[in-house]
Amino acid sequence: MARALPSVALLAGIGIAGGFFGALFGVGGGIVVVPLLIAAAGFGPREAAGTSLGVIGFTAVFGMLAFAALGEVHWRDAALVGAPAALGTLAGIWLQRRVSSRFLVLAFAAFIVVVAIRLLLE
Questions:
Q1: What is the pLDDT of residues 28-51, one digit of tens each?
Q2: Which own/partner pairs from 22-29 qualify as long-range (CB within 8 Å, at least 24 positions apart)?
Q3: Category of 71 on φ-ψ map: left (φ > 0), alpha (ψ -120 to 50) or beta
Q4: Which of 15, 49, 51, 107 shows its CA 20 to 30 Å from the CA of 58?
């Protein structure tokens, strides 16, 4: 059975939240957009991850240009992190196709909890 299409307003709200937290904390796609696409818009974990990466393309370019205008992008370091990140993306997609959706949701939730505890202890 196909899922009901989410409203334009709901998707726009998720986008605003992702962009806001992305600019404020440097996170948005995975931490904000994925859970909202799953919980509020009815996406499956794989659809949410793929859609989130599409969203990140827009927010990353816009954010990069805005921060670059402020002189706050370290281009060498961005390249040194970004190029291996592209390889990590391919590895993540490969693994994602081989594990259950339930595992993906639980692993993501565990990751968020670990990061939250680490931030609270700093």
A1: 667 889 999 999 999 999 999 999
A2: 22/59, 22/63, 23/63, 23/66, 28/55, 28/56, 28/59, 29/53, 29/55, 29/56, 29/59
A3: left
A4: 107
Q: Taking all residues of the chain, what is their mean pLDDT, rounded to a whole number?
A: 90
* pTM for this predicted structure: 0.78
pLDDT bracket for residue 59 (50, 70, 90): confident
* Residue owning tokens 């040194």: 80
Closest CA to 100 of 52, 50, 44, 38: 44
CB contact at 8 A, 45 and 23: no
